[in-house]
Known about the structure:
The protein has helices at about 5, 10-20, 25-35, 45-70, 70-80, 85, 95-110, 115-130, 140-165, 170-190, 195-205, 210-240, 240-260, 265-295. The chain starts with a helix and ends in a 5-residue tail after the last helix. It has one domain (about 10-295). By secondary structure, it is mostly helical. It is globular, with a radius of gyration of 20 Å.
Amino acid sequence: MTAATQSLPAPSAIAELLKPITWFPPMWAFACGVVASGQPFAGHWALIITGVLLAGPLVCATSQAVNDWFDRHVDAINEPHRPIPSGRMPGRWGLYVAVAWTLLSLLVALSLGDWGFLAAAAGLALAWAYSAPPVRLKQNGWWGNAACGFCYEGLAWITGAAVMAGGTMPDPRSILLAVLYSLAAHGIMTLNDFKSIRGDRAMGVASLPVQLGADGAARMACLTMAAPQLVVFALLLSWDQPLHALAIAALLIGQALLMRWFVHKPVERALYYSGFGVPILVSGMMVAAWALRAQTGGLG
C-alpha cells in the first residue's frame, strides 16, 4: 500500500463513524409526524422517503461524526476501539466527513421546501453546538440531553408533520406530543452516559451520572421517561381515544417493570435497558401519532 492509500479511511471505518444503529430514532419520529399530520400518504411518498433519509442517514449521521471528532480524547479512554482513537480514521478525516455530511444534508433538505430546510439547518446547528467548543452543550448533561432529545424526537416529528401539511404550522396537538416525547428522550440520552462515566469524569464532562451519581441519574432517567408518557395517556383520554390510551398505559407498565430491574444496577444494565425498554417507549410514539390521526379523521 502507498502512503496516500494508508492515509485514507476505509469505507467500513466511515460507516462505523456514522453509526447506522443511531439513525432509527429520528427516522421513526419523522414518520410519527407524518402519521400525526392526518394528511393522506398517497402522492407524498417521495417526500416521506426523502424526509426519513434526511432525518437518519444524513442529519443524525452528521451528528455522530461531529460528536466522535470532538470526543476523540474522551473516547480514547472510554472506547479506544472507535474509528478515530483507534487510528482507523486517520488525520483529520473525522472532521472532513462531518463537514461533508453537513453540506450534503443541507443540499438534500432543499427538496423539502423552506420548512424542511430550516428544520435541517436547526438540527445541524444543534449537532455542532452539542459537541463543538466553545458551546459544547454536552459538557452539562441537562443541556446536552435536552438538545439531543429535541433534535432526535421533537424536531423530526414536527418536521414530518409540517412538510406533509405543505410547509404550514402543524396541529398544536401534534406539537404538544412532539414536545412530550422530546422530554422523554432526555431520559433516553442519559442511558447512553452510564458507559462513559470514567472518561467523562476524567475529562470534565458533567454528564448526569457524573453529577448525580449512577443511582441518582438512573432514577432521574426513569422519571424523565415515564412522566411525559403519563401526560400522553391523559391527553389521549381527553381526545376520546381510550383504546390508544390503554395501549400507552400497557407500554408504560412494561417499561416500569424494566425500570425496577434497571435501577438496582444501572451501570451494568443501562445498555440492556436501552435495548429492551426504549423500543417500548418509542412504540408508544407511533400509537400516539395514530391516535391523533384517528381523532382528526386523517386519511390513509
